[in-house]
Design brief:
CATH topology of the largest domain: Rossmann fold
Strand order of the largest sheet: 16-22-21-17-18-20
Structural class: alpha/beta
Helix content: 25-40%
Number of helices: 14
Strand content: 15-25%
């Protein structure tokens, strides 16, 4: 029996009582303005340690999905459409911390710049719960960098103010060279009228930046007088920048020159970051599984001699449920761990585990899964096969043909993406389809692909499905 190789085993996040006072610990962290890569290293570290992540609407789902071990609680809060009121968020943070858990309150932008982080630490102080603040890149800084509009510039702007665009009755107009207004989706004209009333010239430069640092970032520029006459819809999230520094803006900024690629799966490294912006969009949503069956199997984990992972999702959700049921990698030390392909092996590394074998059919002299298992001497095993709720019987059959007993365990369920999750194709230059199933699900969600968008299939089967579904 091969021994599981554990690269490193992190210490327990906390003891049974969390801290000496029996309470957990809270991190109030900024996620940045939208681009997941703008997260700080410290925020990344504490998210890896988190038991619970409470995240806002403006936090990218791609970012949150990178931390499978934590419980995720969506606390989305937009104007007139609150999933959680602020008091409820405060209570939820406290509830988990009092259970001795490590809690990360993850906010878009920076917690202390219109992020209501101050209200949350007031609550933590009253409860005697330990906390830290982790700053994030605020939306104004992200919008400035990604539009090439400097907030300060020698001989043009030596001062800058951050303000909010609501409530309208309290709009302020500071006497600074540059003013940035947050949260202006419904009040752009009110703000501009107030700025004009305070004596700013009608020739003052104005820019509205929507979805700053995201794939669908859009910038509108003009003068104060021009904008006041416009009847242009502005959609949240949006920033309003006022000042002559906007003269630096050009339509072909470094960010706008990058091609936007919609990835439905596969390795995003095929599109280098110097030339492309990758928008990750699995055509299928991944949901939970039969928790009773999962719990019973994990409680009987000693009955199995081998773990076989087909893909990243099977790894991610197996470990999620392993941890939730009070176990960790030490309970797998008696098992041989194998993967089918490098993606699953790479996902295992995030849990500190190197698989005993990585079976790749390509480049293996035509050997199928049965042949590869035989070559590795892996027979007469009792294999636990974490997988989708729709079991791939062909894989289970090949494992059995190699002389093994196989128990499939559905740890996730694939569902079609919902229309509200759809990506705006107006901003997409290329779509990479990773499988025939993604092509079919994409057709269900979108119906068609604009002719200007290039399509790239992963293999011949996917190319054939593209031809059937879209005639391309």
């Amino acid at each position: 029996m091969k021994e599981v190789r554990i690269m490193h085993e992190q210490p327990s996040k906390h003891n049974d009582t969390g801290t000496a006072t029996g309470k957990g610990y809270v991190y109030i962290a900024g996620a940045g303005p939208g681009d997941p890569e703008l997260l700080t290293m410290k925020a990344h570290r504490v998210l890896l340690e988190a038991d619970v992540i409470l995240y806002d609407d403006l936090v990218s789902p791609d970012l949150v999905d990178q931390y499978p071990a934590a419980e995720k609680i969506y606390t989305g809060k937009r104007k007139d459409s609150h999933h959680f009121e602020q008091d409820e968020i405060n209570q939820e943070i406290v509830r988990h911390a009092l259970k001795g858990k490590i809690v990360v309150r993850l906010k878009g932008g920076d917690p202390f710049i219109f992020g209501r982080g101050g209200e949350e630490i007031d609550t933590l102080r009253r409860q005697g719960i330990g906390y830290e603040i982790i700053p994030g890149i605020t939306a104004a800084h992200g919008a400035s960098a990604y539009t090439e509009i400097p907030l300060t510039m020698r001989k043009v702007s030596s001062s800058v103010s951050f303000c909010t665009g609501h409530p309208v009755s309290k709009i302020q107009v500071p006497d600074t060279d540059t003013i940035v207004y947050y949260m202006v989706a419904s009040s752009v004209h009110d703000v501009l009228d107030m700025v004009a009333a305070k004596g700013r010239s009608g020739d003052t430069k104005v820019a509205v930046v929507q979805n700053a640092t995201r794939y669908n970032q859009k910038t509108f520029t003009g003068t104060l007088d021009e904008f006041r006459k416009r009847e242009r819809a502005v959609y949240s999230p949006a920033l309003l920048i006022i000042g002559d520094n906007i003269s630096q803006f050009i339509e072909t900024s470094w960010y706008s020159r990058k091609k936007k690629v919609l990835m439905t799966g596969g390795d995003s490294k095929r599109y280098p970051g110097t030339d492309y912006i990758v928008v990750n969009f699995p055509c299928r949503r991944v949901a939970g599984a039969d928790l009773d069956a999962v719990k019973a199997t994990i409680e009987g984990i000693d009955d199995f001699s081998m773990l076989f992972f087909q893909n990243k999702s099977s790894v991610k959700y197996f470990f999620k449920y392993l941890f939730e049921n009070g176990r960790d990698v030490r309970h797998l030390s008696h098992m041989t761990i194998c993967t089918s392909g490098r993606a699953a092996a790479a996902e295992l590394l995030t849990y500190g585990i190197i698989p005993d074998c990585c079976l790749e059919a390509e480049g293996s002299a035509g050997l199928g899964l049965t042949g590869l298992l035989s070559k590795e001497g892996l027979a007469q095993q009792h294999i636990l096969l974490p997988c989708s709720g729709n079991v791939d019987e062909s894989v289970a059959a090949e494992l059995r043909d190699a002389g093994n007993r196989v128990t499939p365990l559905g740890v996730y369920v694939h569902e079609a993406q919902r229309q509200e999750d759809a990506v705006d194709l107006e901003f997409i230059d290329e779509i990479y389809f990773s499988s025939p199933g993604c092509v079919r699900n994409f057709r269900t969600l979108y119906g068609s692909i604009p002719d200007r968008i290039r399509v790239t299939p992963a293999d011949d089967r996917t190319a054939e499905e593209l031809q059937r579904q879209f005639g391309r």
